[in-house]
């Protein structure tokens, strides 16, 4: 039986349900290029590359980019953004726990909100150090959920939790988040760390739009119950939204951030 991979199921809807748009990704790419002092020969690996939104600007600028992801469907979405896959882009469908590359292969390794999904995070970080070139950069990044969207999500999580306890045949669950002290790991390995905010921007969605994202089951926590139970939870949540916000057409706006923890051994 094939291992459950909810990323395959949400690939077609992934970009539209997130808040990192292509224009914002361009600004973030500028920030990363300046941060690592990239030159035409700079090579980059993104583990958990997904649909490529983080590195597509770099690919278009001609940098050598390798992307790996456990979901073939996510990689297919990346490929569809290009008329053809250019020679400077290498996409590989594989588990990130083992990086099948020679030592000192990349100037930059990038991860964006993905280490919590790696089964053995310490082995993964060991592998990052192994494939980084001397003086290379590891950029551990994440998009911080806009507070209004996070509040909306938490309302649904509370409702979903009631149904999860009742579900006799739940869907396979995505890997649970675990406590990971990445900063301490790299400090112990002799790396210097630097925390930076690459970009802040306002994100706005109507309640109706956000509700539609949940109906698509576009997030990992939406797969914790069976489809039948999920539909019941969504129906209750829609009624809750009407009472809570007064209208599904109310717009929720708040600020998102793209954070980067940069590590380099000098």
UniProtKB/TrEMBL annotation:
GO biological process assignments: methylation
Domain of life the protein comes from: Bacteria
Coiled coil: none
Domain Methyltransferase type: 45-138
Gene Ontology molecular functions: S-adenosylmethionine-dependent methyltransferase activity
Name of one Pfam family that matches: Methyltransf_11
CDD domains hit by this protein: AdoMet_MTases
Record's keyword terms, sorted: Methyltransferase, Transferase
PANTHER family in the cross-refs: 2-METHOXY-6-POLYPRENYL-1,4-BENZOQUINOL METHYLASE, MITOCHONDRIAL, METHYLTRANSFERASE
Name of protein: Class I SAM-dependent methyltransferase
Highest classification ranks of the organism: Bacteria, Bacillati, Cyanobacteriota, Cyanophyceae, Pseudanabaenales
